[in-house]
Amino acid sequence: MRRIKYLVLMGITAALVLIAHVTAASACAWAHYQPEVPDKLAKY
Amino acid sequence: MDIPSRFIADYLGRQLGLDAEARDVLRFGAQNLFLGIVGLAAVSLVAWFLRCLPETLMLTGVVMVTRSFAGGAHLGRPLRCTVFTATIFPALGAAALAIANVGTIVPGFCAGATFVSLITVLMLAPVDNPAKPIRTGTHRRRLRKWAASAVVVAAVFQAYLLAGGLPACSLAAATGMGLLWQSFILTGVGRGVMQFIDRVLDFQPG
């Protein structure tokens, strides 16, 4: 059970990291509001 | 949007033992995801009430794709953004439907929208903002190229829809409307309008 929970959390984390990188590499967020980009993603 | 994003990032960070920098990345990802979901839900709901859901979703898709590469004006708060998006996109969808009802002008409208959009993107894109500056010239040139490619793909899609006949006519008009809206928010006038809306809604009582 703990292993399944760990895998689910890892999956959510991977999805959020992917979204963060894709958004940071694009010109801006699709919506009419742009969240502050974290320093770690400032390389884009 | 910031509170649930922070909660999720902190929870995942605690469970997986991530540091503060990694949590910031997760928070940023969650913010963008929530903005997208809430914005799309609000837009869909209003468009459904106005009976222009397919047109609105089509132009939202066009704006989403072109905006990712071309950038554009922003508002200062997430809630303001959601309310504004849920107002303007269904209104544009309804306008596209009205244009499609005058069927003969749709091909001309689509051609004009594509032309205006291509010129605007080549001249002005990408438009960045202080929250997410574009740091290198290479990245800037690459985004401009991708934005222009997105407009060309939208134009080809419009042509395909127009060839499909009358039922797809309103979707072609919606694609054109999406391109025109994206062009507008790249211009100085568009950014000025957004700043004005931001100032008006920034009223603090007391």
Helix and strand topology:
The complex is a heterodimer of chains A (44) and B (206).
Chain A: H1 2-25
Chain B: H1 2-16, H2 20-49, H3 53-70, H4 78-101, H5 106-124, H6 137-163, H7 169-186, H8 188-201
Helix pairs in contact in B: 1-2, 2-3, 2-4, 3-4, 3-6, 3-7, 4-7, 5-6, 5-7, 6-7
Whole-angstrom Rg of chain B:
19 Å
| Largest β-sheet summary of chain A | none
Decide which structural class fits the backbone of chain B. Answer: mainly alpha
* Percent range for β-strand residues of chain B: under 5%
Oligomer category: heterodimer
Structural write-up:
- The complex is a heterodimer of chains A (44) and B (206).
- Chain A has 1 helix and no strands.
- By secondary structure, chain A is mostly helical.
- Chain B contains 8 helices and no strands.
- The chains are: A mainly alpha (44), B mainly alpha (206).
- Chains A and B meet through helix 1 of A and helix 1, helix 2, helix 3, helix 4 and helix 6 of B.
In short:
Chain A is mainly α. Chain A has 1 helix and no strands.
Give short descriptive properties of this protein.
heterodimer, A: 44 residues, mainly alpha, elongated, B: 206 residues, 8 helices, 80% helix, 0% strand, globular
